[in-house]
Amino acid sequence: RIKRSSHNNFCFFTPEMQSHSARRLQLSNALYFGLTRGEFLLHYQPQISLQDGHMVGVEALIRWQHPEFGAVAPSEFIPIAEDSGQILAIGEWVLRTAVTQMKAWLDAGMKPMVMSVNLSTVQFRHPDLLALVMQTLQMAGLPAQYLELELTEAMAMDNPTAAIALMNQLHEQGVRLSIDDFGTGYSSLSYLKKFKVSKLKIDQSFVRDIGDDKDDRAIVTAVINLASSLGMQTIAEGVETPGQLAFLRLQGCDEAQGYYFSKPLPVDQLEAFAKTMTAVP
Ligand code: C2E
Ligand code: MG
Ligand code: MG
Ligand code: MG
To answer: Where is the chain membrane-spanning (predicted)?
Structure first.
């Protein structure tokens, strides 16, 4: 895009654009070494059942600590990794690490729960995804029912026919599926009923203002009812206050996830959290 400067001549990059693309390039190069240098790790955020208050799952969220750039947020580096194709190797590492961790937890006697893993559009479109998922589970020795893959509406709606076929195959193998950030994309209701999805994740943007925005309350209630009529469960994302929790519980939301319970935690802290959860029923 051409930008017109104040002197009425043209330049292709403003200094701001230049530093933005320079950072992208730097990060893209750094991503290449990130995996081999062990700069990535996963944090796990508890997912709490609103029926009994127990932890019923965790969501794996990637963290990148670069020696020079420091902590880089996934919202910044995932899109770069998607553009460069590096997301395939990173996504494979995430899947393997998460699945191996859950197997280790189960072996150590942790109460059975579900491991949720975010998928990228690029992974979802890749023809080897099903094989990769099944191979990863098999190598780790984890039964498929402990794994949930998070898709977005855009991923499912991009090519609904292909998406439905893949979802059916994953479902047949026992892998659970959920739709992340539900309500922010656009999915057609006539397709939604064909998606083999067990859970809708209500986006945090609707949860945030439950207290003082009646439209958001109406949307959250509608999503919970829609899910329930389609035989799907709901989990609310970004729950931070007791008021939000009370409303969600009243509306029949199944699960919640957010800072009110816990931020995403490194392995040892998640284990400590799990112990306190079982100590206080
Ligand atoms: P997401 O999957 O929707 O994850 C939820 C985000 O909300 C996470 O941000 C989480 O740390 C944050 N969060 C959780 N509870 C609260 C809360 O109570 N309040 C607020 N304000 N935020 C909360 P995070 O970890 O920065 O991840 C951002 C996004 O990056 C994720 O959104 C997901 O789309 C993507 N992402 C993270 N890890 C992976 C991964 O391993 N693979 C892929 N493909 N994408 C990932
Ligand atoms: Mg997610
Ligand atoms: Mg989300
Ligand atoms: Mg997301």
So the answer is: none
The ipTM, to two decimals, is 0.98
pTM above 0.90, yes or no: yes
Tokens of 79: 């899109």
Q: Which atom of ligand 1 is nearest to the CA of 152?
A: 34
- Mutation test residue for ligand 1: of 84, 87, 101, 118, the one with most atoms within 8 Å of CB: 118
Q: Cα–Cα distance between 49 and 210 in angstroms, integer?
A: 19
How far apart are alpha carbons 174 and 188 in whole angstroms?
25
Tell whether the model's pLDDT for residue 223 goes beyond 60. Answer: yes
Contacts of 98 (CB under 8 A, 6+ apart): 42, 60, 115, 117, 147
Is the C-beta atom of 94 inside 6 A of ligand 1? Answer: yes
